[in-house]
Amino acid sequence: xxxxxxxxxxxxxxxxxxxxxxxxxxxxxxxxxxxxxxxxxxxxxxxxxxxxxxxxxxxxxxxxxxxxxxxxxxxxxxxxxxxxxxxxxxxxxxxxxxxxxxxxxxxxxxxxxxxxxxxxxxxxxxxxxxxxxxxxxxxxxxxxxxxxxxxxxxxxxxxxxxxxxxxxxxxxxxxxxxxxxxxxxxxxxxxxxxxxxxxxxxxxxxxxxxxxxxxxxxx
Amino acid sequence: xxxxxxxxxxxxxxxxxxxxxxxxxxxxxxxxxxxxxxxxxxxxxxxxxxxxxxxxxxxxxxxxxxxxxxxxxxxxxxxxxxxxxxxxxxxxxxxxxxxxxxxxxxxxxxxxxxxxxxxxxxxxxxxxxxxxxxxxxxxxxxxxxxxxxxxxxxxxxxxxxxxxxxxxxxxxxxxxxxxxxxxxxxxxxxxxxxxxxxxxxxxxxxxxxxxxxxxxxxxxxxxxxxxxxxxxxxxxxxxxxxxxxxxxxxxxxx
Amino acid sequence: xxxxxxxxxxxxxxxxxxxxxxxxxxxxxxxxxxxxxxxxxxxxxxxxxxxxxxxxxxxxxxxxxxxxxxxxxxxxxxxxxxxxxxxxxxxxxxxxxxxxxxxxxxxxxxxxxxxxxxxxxxxxxxxxxxxxxxxxxxxxxxxxxxxxxxxxxxxxxxxxxxxxxxxxxxxxxxxxxxxxxxxxxxxxxxxxxxxxxxxxxxxxxxxxxxxxxxxxx
Lengths: 219, 254, 217
Prior knowledge:
The structure holds three protein chains of three kinds.
Chain A: H1 8-12, H2 14-48, H3 51-64, H4 69-79, H5 89-114, H6 118-126, H7 131-146, H8 148-161, H9 173-184, H10 187-215
Helix pairs in contact in A: 2-3, 2-5, 2-8, 2-9, 3-5, 4-5, 5-7, 5-8, 6-7, 8-10, 9-10
Chain B: E1 5-14, E2 17-27, E3 32-37, H1 43-50, E4 58-63, E5 66-67, E6 70-73, E7 76-79, H2 82-89, E8 92-95, H3 107-118, H4 123-136, H5 152-164, E9 170-174, H6 182-197, E10 202-205, H7 209-215, E11 218-223, E12 226-231, H8 233-238, H9 243-253
Helix pairs in contact in B: 3-4, 3-5, 4-5, 5-6
Chain C: H1 4-46, H2 49-64, H3 67-76, H4 87-113, H5 116-124, H6 129-160, H7 171-182, H8 185-215
Helix pairs in contact in C: 1-2, 1-4, 1-6, 1-7, 2-4, 3-4, 4-6, 5-6, 6-8, 7-8
């Protein structure tokens, strides 16, 4: 029994797919922004903070990196409302994504911070900067630049993870693709297209990253 | 007159290895003391202890009479808090062998950082002071350049300006030409000489024997963590007394 | 109203079954993924253009596609060519290919990083290519990618939770069914999270233990 490729249904739904793709990118960027804020604070706390802070950060990272995002998202979307915390599915997922991203970005920033050469730290101390002065005015700016490649790779993973929002009915690309699949039964065309859109977007992101890394190379 | 820096019985070990064996040293205003010796003799460790970058096990360091790094409480030594250490460090300047300029800041901003963040000066005033010191080391036209865009010799001179902008009581120089290509060494040595002629108090760890003889008011020879000979550079470097110093000098000239 | 512990006692069999499916599917995907991934890696590094190119395409497409999309594709697409593999098979296939692509790419990196001098030395003492590969290159590469394998296994366990979207009765779907009956939403999602955490910590610990054991070789 042959299967004749017919992209008509997919093309009709193309703008829904593309809007879904855009939504995924927006959620990814929001997750990256908030996640980076979390990551920077957590990394600073881990590298320069007192022991209790270090433990809290390690617990956060250890917990979030070992639990599936879907479980976190379902927990946030279905369990938290019982305690009065109720937001839209998009907001909830974006928040979960930010917390998830934060755990990975903490490691990115932490690695960048601890590789700042000891001599630079000595120079900072020798002009009279206190520990927090060295952390904020010397280590942090250097680490932010040096963490760029790692942060960029994390963003690509994050963007792919936005597909999981489909499970809680967020109308991003995967959700739309499944909808077209169920309505038109063009099973091969729709998933080829969805995959192509993801692969293409990731490739474009990677290209942009490489340009950024060339413009802002590591110190 | 009171010495600016007095070091008494400074002792430090790294694990079981005793790196400084009770060092005594005085540095008066205007002194240019050159510190020579083989690698591992403790010269760099001594400098780092003075700048409070390392803790030391016994002895005391006083800057203008003030006890540095520790305070005495009921006869026990207590390390000062981070904040107090930072304040004490700001009164000394240090220039490192590998320059250690802040890579994310231009030359001007490298010099300004201490002025704005430590001395809390407004940016406009800090900029004026920074520009003065960059000009003093001959790099006014490089002020907007990043460290990666200037030569090693130029980076080292920016590092000197950065240290001096804080108006330290004394300047510590740790083998500041050892990492430079030979043709870049001169510009840094000339800068240091002009500072010496202007009366800057300096403690210089160096391998450049001829330079030490020309510029310093006193030379100190260290070996295995102790001061072996000390005195007029012409005598120390020209007619060494101890066998170890003679061996060291002959190994240097080979 | 039953307490959480009451419901837990009643559903423990069900949860255990779900957990077994999770561990089994993940285990199969990792094992098969290692084998397939090794083939991918070798093809990418040493294969002729005719062999390396299609593998390159597969690996790049799989790595650029979210796991959920891979799972849904493996679930829905076979109908188009007249096959109906069922959710468990489809899911295992998707996870295997995902795992293999990742391992293949990592292996390629590790093999390429081995200095050429090693290959030269091997041929100088008369080893054939196959022997060089087996005795010199692959062992070094494996040691290089071992920590990575632990991370990949953890990712596969987490990805197995997505199989709930195509109806596979693994841990997450089972949890959702229990919640549907008992309404103990927070407790059971927290429990599920805790179980995934425990599995992955075990994997990480096992990985470090193995690494320590084989380090002196």
